[in-house]
Design brief:
The structure is a single chain. The chain is about 20% helix and about 45% strand. It is an alpha+beta fold. The protein has a single domain (about 5-85), classed as Alpha-Beta Plaits, CATH 3.30.70.1340. The protein is globular. The protein starts with a strand and ends in a 14-residue tail after the last strand.
């Protein structure tokens, strides 16, 4: 049996509507989700680039992806994935050494 997904950080391109507030609320309502953080880091005329962090005890990535696609978003990359019994915070990355 695979370990449970505890956190995913996604780089997403989405239209201006719905707002990040609505997207966060919808993601937070998914089964297994304990919290959601969305930050806008770039805005264009038609779209915005956002960083979405989703945490929970047992996340279903395909459900998260489906919701993002339903609101018109596209996942550019999975920037972090955490699985297992605990969340590991602040692990040094190779580029930081």
């Amino acid at each position: 049996m695979a370990a449970k997904i505890r956190r995913v950080v996604l780089d997403v391109l989405k239209p201006h509507a719905p707002s990040i507030i609505e997207v966060a609320q919808r993601l937070a309502g998914l089964p297994g989700v304990d919290g959601v953080n969305i930050s806008i880091y770039e805005v264009d005329r038609m779209v915005e680039n956002v960083k979405i962090t989703v945490e929970g005890a047992d996340l279903e990535y395909t459900t998260i992806l489906s919701l993002i696609e339903d609101v018109g978003g596209t996942v550019h990359s999975i920037d972090e994935a955490v699985a297992g019994k605990v969340l590991i915070e602040g692990a040094p990355q190779l580029q930081d050494l």
